[in-house]
Specification:
Helices cover about 30% and strands about 30% of the residues. It is α+β, with helices and mostly antiparallel strands. The strands form two sheets. Strands 1-2-3-4-5-9-6 form a seven-stranded mixed β-sheet. A two-stranded antiparallel sheet has the order 7-8.
């Protein structure tokens, strides 16, 4: 498996991959992926096996809290799940975070996305206490706007 930054020639295959993530991941426009590759390539890794896109992460370093990286989307092709793809992708984000001296990686999931929540826990993410619980998962009310409750998961990193 090769991990490489998002680039122009990978936009189409990454867009297609993201379409496979519904109902929890929705593909952005190809213009959005172009911007991610141009402006955030170091935190938007793509996993390739035999030149086929099998996974991708869209993540962004906060301009408000530069010690934090928010992970927007993590998508692994259904035929390549449980083979370490998400771990490798998130490992590249952790490496970049360490280079920058970041102290927190975080992401969210819908309360019903139990498969993703199990993955986050397996990869060392901790569910942040929120406002209420659903099936033993803490949920933060309106985290992503009115009516968009989310389970928030984070990994705390040591700064250099």
């Amino acid at each position: 498996m090769k991990i490489t930054p998002l680039s122009k020639h990978l936009i189409g295959p990454v867009h297609h991959l993201m379409t496979l993530g519904e109902p929890f991941i929705f593909a952005r426009t190809t213009s959005d992926y172009w911007a991610y590759g141009e402006l955030f390539a170091s935190t938007c890794p793509v996993a390739l096996i035999d030149d086929e896109v099998v996974g991708a992460v869209m993540a962004f370093r906060s301009q408000v809290e530069p010690n934090e990286i928010y992970i927007q989307d993590v998508m692994v092709h259904p035929g390549h799940r449980n083979h370490g793809v998400a771990s490798a992708l998130l490992g590249s984000i952790r490496d970049q975070a360490a280079t920058w001296g970041c102290t927190r990686l975080y992401l969210t999931s819908e309360p019903q996305n139990t498969a993703a929540q199990a993955t986050w826990r397996k990869l060392g993410f901790v569910n942040v206490p929120g406002d209420y619980e659903v099936d033993e998962v803490s949920i933060t009310k309106d985290f992503k706007g009115m009516g968009k409750d989310r389970a928030v998961f984070e990994v705390r990193l040591h700064s250099r």
